[in-house]
């Protein structure tokens, strides 16, 4: 078996209802909000009920991406002023947003108790949703770490730049130090093609294996896409602007791979759900290039 294939964790994500997914990154601007918003939209289009949370308290911009004139839902919910149902703004029939609009933070970055309380309350209050997706701020904070650690899955966003790989590794290392069994998977964004995804995967794996003796899990990659830029300019989800383009396919595959029973498209795997969507090679099917011999 290739050293690049799965060695940690189950193939499908541990599933409780709702399933909590945290989108995190070391370096800023790597596409967390783009991924969170478009992944939520894809889940919604697959009939799943999604609660999208803008956990980037100070610089929340999911409401801008979605062109939604919404309330400061997360702050109101955390303060207890409103119930979850009163705090959300519907973006579509299936996707609700708990927004951070004003930069008026619900709690400080070092308030681990408030962060843990939020996760616990959501597990109780968000039972009508299939998925809860946290779009976090970049970098490391205690509150973010608690929310991520309290999630069923973390997607660690990284782009094909050494600084991003290095920062992602630092965050991954911290997460593993806190809890080695945390299901934290790498999602490589803004790839010009498969080679760049392999480059990131190789570099990251080499670091994690050498210094932590951990083989990380890769959830897949998303291409650098002019259609994504157009969707940002149009303040719409990619699916609405370009229902058929490679990046939309990537988000579709990503969503399906994260649903119960979905599996990773790792090297050599035959993901029938992926094959059903398209005969083209899935971006997540990164070939084992034999880096480790
Ligand atoms: N796959 C992609 N293809 C093309 N452009 C992209 C892609 N992903 C992200 N971008 C561009 O990068 C910008 C920054 O993305 P985004 O705001 O999601 O990053 P972020 O990680 O959430 O940043 P921050 O750390 O500041 O919260 C987007 O507005 C978009 O223009
Ligand atoms: Mg963001």
Protein architecture, described:
This protein is of the alpha/beta class and 293 residues long. The protein has a single domain, classed as Rossmann fold (3-Layer(aba) Sandwich). Helices cover 41% and strands 15% of the residues. The chain has twelve helices and eight strands. It has an eight-stranded mixed sheet with strand order 3-4-2-5-1-6-7-8, with helices on both faces. A hairpin with a 4-residue loop joins strand 3 (89-90) and strand 4 (95-98). Helix 5 packs parallel to helix 6 (142-149). It is globular. The structure holds adenosine-5'-triphosphate and magnesium ion (MG). Adenosine-5'-triphosphate (ATP) is lined by residues 25, 28-34, 56, 138, 189-190, 222, 224-225, 228-229, 232. Residues 25, 28-34, 56, 138, 189-190, 222, 224-225, 228-229, 232 line the site of adenosine-5'-triphosphate.
């Amino acid at each position: 078996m290739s050293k690049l294939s799965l060695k940690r964790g189950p193939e499908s994500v541990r599933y409780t209802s709702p399933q909590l997914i945290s989108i995190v990154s070391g370096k800023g601007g790597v596409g967390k909000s783009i991924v969170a918003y478009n992944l939520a939209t894809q889940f919604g289009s697959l009939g799943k009920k999604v609660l999208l949370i803008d956990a980037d308290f100070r610089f929340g911009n999911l409401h801008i991406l979605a062109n939604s004139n919404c309330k400061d839902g997360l702050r109101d919910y955390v303060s207890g002023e409103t119930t979850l149902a009163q705090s959300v703004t519907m973006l579509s029939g299936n996707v609700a947003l708990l927004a951070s609009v004003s930069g008026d933070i619900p709690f400080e970055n070092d308030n681990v108790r408030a962060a843990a309380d939020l996760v616990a309350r959501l597990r109780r209050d968000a039972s009508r949703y299939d998925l809860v997706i946290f779009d976090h701020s970049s970098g490391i904070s205690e509150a973010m770490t608690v929310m991520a650690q309290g999630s069923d899955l973390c997607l660690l966003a990284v782009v094909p730049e050494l600084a991003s790989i290095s920062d992602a590794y630092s965050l991954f290392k911290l997460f593993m130090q806190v809890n080695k069994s945390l299901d934290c998977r790498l999602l490589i964004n803004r790839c010009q093609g498969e080679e760049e995804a392999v480059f990131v995967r190789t570099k990251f794996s080499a670091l994690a294996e050498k210094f932590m003796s951990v083989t990380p899990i890769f959830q897949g990659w998303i291409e650098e896409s002019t259609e994504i830029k157009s969707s940002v300019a149009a303040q719409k989800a990619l699916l609405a602007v370009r229902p058929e383009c490679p990046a939309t396919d990537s988000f579709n595959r990503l969503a399906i791979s994260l649903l119960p029973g979905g599996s990773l498209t790792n090297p050599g795997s035959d993901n029938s759900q992926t094959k059903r969507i398209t005969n083209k090679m899935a971006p997540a099917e990164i070939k084992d290039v034999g880096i480790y011999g």
